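Appendix B, example 12.
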Amino acid sequence: MNELFALIAAALKLPPAAIGPATSMKNTPGWDSLAHMELIIGIEERYQVILDADEIADMTSVARIIGQLARRGLVDDAA
């Protein structure tokens, strides 16, 4: 999970320690639409997947990102 948190932190330009399951678009000022797309691109490149529009739209928090990736068997959903 640390690798995923580091990827998210880099996309949001935050220290990795600032990232947790509760981190979301609603409570993270730097998580705007541009940062969201950078994050999605980073996830797709790292995990070698192509996310569909519904998955991308659902990934509004770290917990939801973990959930989407866990459904694909790419990460353990225990955050």
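The domain at 2-71 is CATH 1.10.1200.10 (Non-ribosomal Peptide Synthetase Peptidyl Carrier Protein; Chain A). DSSP finds four helices and no strands in the chain.
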